[in-house]
Design goal:
The chain is built from twelve helices and 21 strands. It is globular. By secondary structure, the chain is α+β, with helices and mostly antiparallel strands. The two termini are about 45 Å apart. The strands form four sheets. Strands 5, 6, 7, 8, 9, 10, 11, 14 and 15 form a nine-stranded antiparallel β-sheet that branches. The structure holds flavin mononucleotide. Flavin mononucleotide (FMN) binds near residues 137, 154, 207 and 304.
């Protein structure tokens, strides 16, 4: 089991941590350097000296599927991919382990309430040119539904307006949006705690989507193999992770809402509108570190974001395999290089020429339980079983080598889309594309790929 701190120490010991002590400006200079670090090296980083800030800036801990596995103490992580992690998360979701409440925790080493607390003590970067300002990106927000009393945890990018006000964004598909609506309908102010530097397992489960009634805290407990330890917040009945690095306690005021913009994970700006929240307290470890996820199209954001599609893969695996017993593999690809939307690639040993289109329509129509697959999926491609659906080049090759009939391109117009697809038309609708990239059965003999028989048995190293 790893805590945020112990995983950071582990990365330092294995030489996977870069430390920069020269002073950096959090506005543009820091993100410019972090962007280079994330793109050039697969290492975590600590900036010890951020201008005007009280805490060091840390990031890059979870920039690959392998790192997620490492942080969860999963053995044999070599070659680990998201599809290997998905069953681990599904198992944890099916067998949650209840969190515990402690009487104290290191997140309370220092307690600053009211005027003693200030958001300006944090090294919060302004990432991109047109961003509305500095954004907290690595905090998980804990809130409580007023009707069910259940605690909810998720990532919510948070714009800092000044020393003691901020905007905590809740997307249309988030549970937090529903919780905001419930408090607003009651005419009540709402408490929320933004927790920075939480146990790795909680970081991962907060990014995932869980069925109603299943707590992210308890999925995290199952993931790390021991309960997540919580303590009561200083100014509300919320619980916060006992060993969080920094906790920001705030009250949300629904009388004031504001639009704001941040560079999103697929290289576009994403606007959101959310209520303004007032800072009421900051508590932290005595040697606290500020964890942040580089915004925009960068490995750590993409890796953690990928966890949110594990649920869709699980649903498709069950739903589609029940209808099509000849499916070989399914890849739900969350690839920023393909835009903000998902692309699903399915390999099949097809029995008839009309089967791929049926499969494409069934996959778009599948209900992920939480939102329809079609809401966030731009394209579904069906390939033959000699094509690797996890190899995007292979899929591209199949499309442009096996698609001779225009009817194998299936267009779905005016499908309701999520707000991060920026090219939608009136009514928030846009096009979906299905591609049958399989060989026509009549061409099976003709369209054979050249292979070298038994090639896997000959190892070049044995000959050099
Ligand atoms: C770095 C990062 C930033 C995110 N920012 C937001 C955000 O601003 N608003 C939001 O609703 N979801 C955001 N998400 C996605 C949520 O974490 C995810 O949808 C989560 O399931 C929401 O939790 P909830 O549905 O329990 O509220 C972000 C995810 C990551 C990894």
């Amino acid at each position: 089991m790893h805590s945020f701190r112990s995983f950071l120490d582990h990365l330092e010991q294995t030489g996977d941590l870069v430390r920069i002590s020269r002073e950096v400006d959090p506005r543009f200079e820091l993100p410019a350097l972090v962007s280079q670090l994330e793109k050039q090296r697969q290492k975590a980083y600590i900036f010890d000296n951020v201008k005007g800030a009280e805490f060091p800036y840390v990031g890059g801990l979870y920039a690959s599927a392998l790192r997620i596995a490492d942080a969860l103490d999963i053995p044999d992580t070599v070659g680990m991919r998201h599809r290997d992690l998905q069953p681990v998360f599904t198992k944890a979701m099916m067998n949650p382990l209840a969190h515990t409440t402690q009487s104290s925790g290191t997140c309370k080493d220092v307690i600053k309430i009211g005027a003693d607390a200030s958001l300006s003590s944090l090294p919060v970067p302004t990432f991109f040119e047109l961003d509305s300002g500095p954004f907290i990106t690595g905090a998980v927000g804990v809130s409580r539904h007023p009707d069910t009393g259940q605690l909810n945890v998720g990532f919510y990018r948070t714009l800092i307006l000044d020393d003691n006000t901020m905007i905590i964004n809740a997307s249309s598909m988030s549970d937090l949006r529903k919780i905001y609506a419930a408090y607003e309908a009651r005419g009540e102010e709402m408490s929320i705690a933004m927790c920075i530097g939480v146990p790795p397992a909680l970081t991962f489960s907060a990014s995932g989507k869980h069925p109603p009634g299943v707590s992210e805290l308890d999925v995290a407990g199952a993931l790390q193999g021991s309960p997540i330890e919580m303590v009561q917040a200083e100014t509300s009945d919320l619980l916060v992770p006992a060993d969080a690095e920094i906790v920001i306690e705030a009250k949300v005021d629904f009388s004031r809402k504001q639009e704001n913009v941040l560079g999103e994970f697929a290289d576009q700006y994403g606007p959101e509108t959310a209520p303004v929240a007032k800072l009421v307290a900051i508590t932290h470890r005595k040697d606290a570190m500020y964890y942040s996820i580089m915004a925009g199209r960068h490995p750590e954001h993409n890796t953690i974001g990928n966890i949110s599609v594990y649920g869709i893969l699980a649903v498709l695996e069950k739903n589609l395999r029940e209808q099509f017993d000849n499916i070989k593999e399914i890849n739900v690809a969350c690839e920023p290089k393909l835009g903000t939307m998902l692309h699903i690639f399915i390999s099949i040993n097809k029995k008839s020429d009309d089967e791929p289109e049926k499969l494409i329509r069934a996959a778009f129509a599948a209900d992920g339980g939480l939102f329809p697959v079609s809401t966030i999926t731009k394209r579904i491609v069906v390939v033959d079983e000699d094509i690797d659906p996890f190899n995007l080049e292979d899929v591209e090759w199949a499309i442009w080598s096996r698609l001779g009939d225009a009817r194998k391109i299936i267009m779905l117009p005016n499908v309701f889309s999520w707000e991060l697809e920026r090219c939608t038309k009136e009514g928030q609708v846009s096009a979906r594309v299905g591609i049958d990239a399989t060989k026509d059965l009549a061409e099976i003999e003709e369209l054979v790929r050249p292979i070298i028989p038994g090639a896997e048995n000959y190892k070049l190293d044995d000959y050099l």
